[in-house]
Design brief:
It is a single chain. The protein is mainly α. The longest helix has 37 residues, at 230-266. The protein has 11 helices and 2 strands; from the N terminus they run H-H-H-H-H-H-H-E-H-E-H-H-H.
Amino acid sequence: MHPTRSRRWPWWFFVALAVPLLLIGNLGAWATWNIVETSNFVQTTRGALAREDVREALATEIVDNALPQNRIVRVVAGNSLISAVSGFLGSGSFQAVSGSVATQLHQALVRGEHLNITIESHELQTAVLPVVRNLAPEYASSLVAEGGTLRIELFSGADIPSFAPEITFLRWGGIAAMIIGGLLVTVPMFVRRDRWSVGLAGLALVTMSLFTFLLVPTASWMVAQQVADPQARIVIAGLVDEFSTSLVKQTLVILLGGIALCIYGFGPWTFGKKLSR
């Protein structure tokens, strides 16, 4: 075996250890910034609530829960009532309400608080009442809330699972994993002081990024399967899609950085001062 190559193999072991640690660290950084941070969570969740499939699921849940004892209205109104509510959820009037819904979801999903997700809006009442008055006027009075504001329970605490333990692990475990993984990929550079070690660090980042891309669809499916209520599952799946997009973007930046390090470390050029190979 070539003497230089024989001295390189221990460093591959460092990379093998660093990749899963860097993956956890990447997930931890993403979770801390995008999920734990309330303002960022609310902003991303608002984008998910604006999706057509999520609005349709919320509209269905609102109609079902607004008329729990009046199924006749539900049958008579059919898709007309759901369409009216869905239209309201897609309007600018819903933006003020969506912040409250997003905050409640943060409390349930991230903090582990057992609470019912509710929506309260005067505009929602004005969107629902005209349809009910036209199709079943005898039931319209049951929708007139005190003070002119309709308050509807979207999901009970049992419908929304808590991911607080997993997020806590990613947040704090990710910090430790990132530090240890970073040390594992930088030790070869400090010991060997050559471009090959730089390329090795880049290869660790590239490998970690590819594993993250493979993990995203599987993890998204697993999260959605933990929700039993069909409408809540659609909402959670929409949230997962939005947050997965931010993870993919973050990982893409790391991937590009890793590719650049690989090109520098394993390429035939030196970009200035030549280092030993």
